């Protein structure tokens, strides 16, 4: 049986992405005391689909877990195959 991953899209159909700025522990819960499931290397593009306090929930290597949002770069959005930085005045219709 093959492995699969799920990437959720925003209502506009754009994927919200960020890049890890250091190696991050992928944890089973949103606490530093929870079990480490894997280590996400620095420079990995991740697609957080849920954020709770300072934690992002992501899929990584078919594992679902939590990483510290403090170590994920400013989110970007992939629109029409291009990556654009999200700012407060971001308007998808202008991309």
Automatic annotation (TrEMBL):
Keywords: Membrane, Transmembrane, Transmembrane helix. InterPro entries: SH3-like_bac-type. Residues 14-76 form the SH3b domain. PROSITE patterns: SH3B. The chain crosses the membrane at residues 32-50. This is Uncharacterized protein YgiM (DUF1202 family).
